């Protein structure tokens, strides 16, 4: 979750706890019970979207793509260099020219082409640790890494959109509870004061101190309990 999502989620947690603590006060308010039930369900669903893990997974995929790209570039460089050595020794070989572009597409196409062309001299390339099957395998690993990264980004976007939807819907339930607590139940002044604190979305303010980095002001999220 991003910072805005987290603040709203923390508010929903407090609202859920408020509903559990003051359950008896809403025993005759069907609308109030329904609203608190909806908030509890939203909290459970939001907890299921572990964006921290998803973001870390995307980061690992990005690192994997970089590693696969580097491995393929280095391998193709060795193949191209070895082909030049063969030609200098009088052996006729395909060109094995490296792509001028550094695009992933051209790199993949070159990997496939090298794997095919190397088959004509499979024994020579294999003897130097550059078997056609290895070229094909490293190229496939790079293609897979690119595809996995794309899938990860799609999953990340879908999760973020779902969180937006859940938070908006839950906020409407909190607004319903505003009306119910103000008008629909016999709430005392302390309970209303606690509610006003609970349902507020905390704003993290920053202050600058001499000789120190800008740091967030500590904000307590403890919920006062009505007597």
Distinctive features:
227 residues, mainly alpha, two-stranded antiparallel ribbon, 7 helices, 2% strand
Q: How many structural domains in the coordinates?
A: 2
Number of strands: 2
Strand arrangement, largest sheet?
A: 1-2
Low-confidence stretches: 206-227
**How much helix, percentage-wise, in residues?**
over 70%
Helical/strand content category:
mainly alpha
Spatial extent as radius of gyration: 30 Å
Q: Could you give the distance between the termini?
A: 34 Å
Mean pLDDT: 83
Label the overall shape.
Answer: rod-shaped
Structure overview:
With about 230 residues, the chain is mostly helical. The protein folds into 2 domains: about 5-55 and about 155-215; about 65-150, no CATH class. The chain has helices at about 5-20, 30-50, 50-90, 105-120, 120-125, 130-185, 190-200, and strands at about 205, 215. A hairpin with a 7-residue loop joins strand 1 and strand 2. Helix 1 (about 5-20) packs across helix 2, helix 1 (about 5-20) crosses helix 6 (about 130-185) and helix 3 (about 50-90) packs antiparallel against helix 6 (about 130-185). The longest helix has about 55 residues, at about 130-185. The radius of gyration is 30 Å and the shape is rod-shaped. Mean pLDDT is about 85; it is low at about 205-225.
């Amino acid at each position: 979750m991003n910072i805005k999502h987290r603040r709203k989620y923390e508010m929903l947690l407090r609202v859920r706890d408020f509903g559990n603590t003051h359950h008896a006060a809403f025993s005759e308010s069907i609308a109030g019970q329904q609203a608190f039930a909806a908030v509890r369900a939203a909290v459970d669903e939001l907890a299921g979207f572990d964006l921290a893990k998803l973001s870390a997974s995307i980061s690992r995929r990005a690192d994997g793509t970089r590693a696969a790209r580097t491995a393929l570039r280095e391998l193709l460089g060795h193949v191209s260099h070895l082909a030049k050595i063969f030609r200098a020794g009088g052996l006729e070989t395909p060109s094995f020219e490296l792509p001028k572009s550094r695009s992933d597409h051209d790199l993949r196409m070159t990997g496939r082409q090298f794997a095919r062309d190397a088959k004509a001299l499979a024994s020579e390339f294999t003897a130097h640790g550059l078997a056609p099957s290895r070229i094909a395998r490293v190229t496939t690993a790079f293609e897979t890494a690119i595809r996995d990264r794309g899938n990860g980004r799609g999953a990340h976007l879908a999760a973020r959109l779902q969180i937006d939807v859940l938070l908006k819907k839950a906020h409407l339930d909190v607004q319903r509870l505003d009306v119910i607590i103000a008008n629909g139940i016999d709430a005392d002044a302390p309970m209303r004061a606690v509610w006003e604190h609970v349902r507020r979305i905390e704003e993290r303010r920053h202050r600058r101190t001499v000789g120190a980095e800008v740091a967030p002001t500590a904000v307590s999220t403890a919920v006062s309990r009505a007597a």
